[in-house]
Known about the structure:
By secondary structure, the chain is mostly helical. Helices cover 56% and strands 10% of the residues.
Amino acid sequence: xxxxxxxxxxxxxxxxxxxxxxxxxxxxxxxxGDVIYVNDRLPFNQAISYLVEEIGHHKTLPEGTNIIDxxxxxxxxxxxxxxxxxxxxxxxxxxxKKFINQKDSVTVxxxxxxxxxxxxxxEETIKxxxxxxxML
Length: 136
């Protein structure tokens, strides 16, 4: 079972997942109520990144909250909270640290390949740990 399937299995009792090839390209995934719609045309490493972010929103948003309006600072804060949940879920600090410590040097590409996510997901995760935890 790959990481994507593990995420689906872990949350299948609290979230419904709909895989839809008709979602607009600019909307790779969206949480509506307790349903996450995922564009099924996405490459695996992108799909898992968006899926975990939407699960993060499900886990961290107050019930019934709509964060679509980014002109509100509170909504931006909630958006970031969901993303951070996803970063921590897919790339836990201890696993990241262990991988980095096993090598003389590590590239973002290697980390993305190891954790099956995009390079930008890795970069944002590292920024999170540096900013929030003063780690790495």
